[in-house]
Amino acid sequence: MALHQFCDGVRRRDFLKAGFLGGLGLSLADYLRLEARGETQAAKATSAIFINLAGGPTHMDTFDLKPKAGSEFRGEFNPIATNVPGVEISEHLPKLALMADKFAILRGVSHTLAAHELGTKYMITGNRPIPSVEYPGYGAVVAKELPSAEDLPKFVAIPNTPQVPGYLGIEFAPMSTTATPKPGEKFNVRGISLAGGLTVSKVERREKLLTDLDTAFKGFEEKNDLLKGLDQFSEQAQRIIMSQRTRDAFDISQESAEITANFGSTGFGTSCLLATRLVEAGVRFVTVTLGGWDTHQDNFTRLKTKNLPELDQGLAALFATLAAKGLLEKTAVCVTGEFGRTPKINPRAGRDHWPRAMFVLLGGGGIKGGQVLGASDENGMGPAGTPITPEEVGASFYHNLGIDFGKEYQSSSGRPLMIVRQGKVLEPLFG
Fold first, then answer.
1. What is the pLDDT of residues 71-106, one digit of tens each?
2. Of the candidates 313, 341, 360, 347, which has an alpha carbon nearest to the alpha carbon of residue 126?
3. pLDDT band at residue 187 using 50, 70 and 90 as cut-offs
C-alpha cells in the first residue's frame, strides 16, 4: 500500500434488582455516575479494527451526498439505495451499500482543526490535542485495558499508524508491519517492528548493551519508564516471533480461496483480510491505513477510479467475513479520517480541508447497524442541529469495548488524566 504525503453491559433495573451494588463495592452515587456516562451496559466487543482514511475523505462524495444542493456543491456522483430503506450512499460504494445493515453512519461529526496532524490526533484519541499532553491512541488504551495472550501482539498496525502510546509509555506502542501483505503469500512475522523505527533487533542490541553496563546504572534503569517499556516489549517480541499461533494468524495464504477473493488484490484489501485473521486469533486491536484522500484536485477522478473501489471492496469484505465467522458481534469497527472536505468544489475540481462536517462509520459489538445518526445541513457545510463531537465518538467506541472512558490514568509526573475528556456515549448507537 502506497504512503501518501499530505499537503500539510448489565441494565440498571437488572443491576438493582439483583442487589449487585453492595457486592461490587459501589455506592448508589457511584452507579448513577457510571449510568450517566453510559457505562452500565455490558460490553459486546472484545477486539477492535480501526480503519484510518488518511488525508481526510470527503463526506459529500461518500456517505453524506447532497443531490439537491447546487452544482457547485453536490459534485458528480449520485446516491444509491442501500439494503436499509431510506439510507443512501455514493454510487461508487455498491458493495458497502449491500452491507449497510452492518454499520452505523455518523453524519455531522464536527470539529475545528483543519491541519492534518492535529485533526488526526483528535480523531484517533477522542481528545482535542494540547501542547502539554500526548494523548494515547485508541489502540494503546485497548492494549492496556484488555488482557490478551502473551504470545500475541496486543496492537498491530498495517502497515503503520499515527497512533502513539502517549503518556501510557512505550509498553503499549503499536507493532507495525511496515508492509502490506500480498494475496496468497505468507506474511513474514519477522517484518514486525515497533512504531518509530525501533525494531526487535535494535531492542535486542540494547539488551546486550545493558548487560555490559556498570551495576551503578541499574537503579536508574528500574525507575525509567522508557527502559521498562522496552524490556517488556523485548520479552514479548521474542515470544511472538516464536509463537506458531501468531505466525499462523499472519499467514493469509491459509485463508480459503473463496474468502481471499472477496478482498481483491489491492494492498488495502489484503490488509483488511489480515486484520480479520488477527482478531480471529485473539489480537485486541488492529489498525489499517488507507491513504490518498487529500484530494485538493481531481477529486472525482481519483475517487471513482481508485479510492472508492478500494475502500468498497476491502471494507465490505471485512464486514462480510467478520459476520460469516461470527466475529462481528465481538469486533468493534471504526472507520474515519481526520476531517471532511469542503462542500464547495474548488477551481481544480477538488475539495479542500473541512473539519466542520465529516462522517464516521461504527459497527460490530453492540452497535446497532443500519442507522444514521446526526446530519449535516443542506449543503454539507456543517451540522444540522447538534453536532457529533470526536469526544462522543471516542466515548462510544470505548463503551462498545467495555472500557470506562472516564477512567483516570496518571502521567509520569503524576498528573491525573481521563481517557476521554468531556466524552458522552451516543446511546442510540446501542439501542
1. 999 999 999 999 999 999 999 999 999 999 999 999
2. 360
3. confident
| Nine cell digits for residue 220 | 536508574
Q: Is the pLDDT score of 316 beyond 60?
A: yes
**Which alpha helices (H) appear in 172-266, and where do they start and end?**
200-212, 218-223, 225-242, 244-250, 257-262
Using alpha carbons, select from 343, 364, 346, 345 the residue that is nearest to residue 354: 343
Residue 340: helix, strand or coil by DSSP? strand
Three-state DSSP class for 307?
A: helix
CA angle 327, 333, 338 (to 5 degrees): 165
Give the pLDDT confidence score for residue 36 in this predicted structure.
54
What is 46-195+249-430's CATH number?
3.40.720.10
Cα 375 from Cα 379, distance rounded (Å)? 11
Distance between CA atoms of residues 14 and 41, nearest Å: 11
Average pLDDT over residues 228-243: 61
* Cα Rg, the chain, nearest whole Å: 22
All cell numbers assigned to 55: 488525508
Q: Provide the residue ranges of all domains of the chain, joining segments of one domain with +.
A: 46-195+249-430
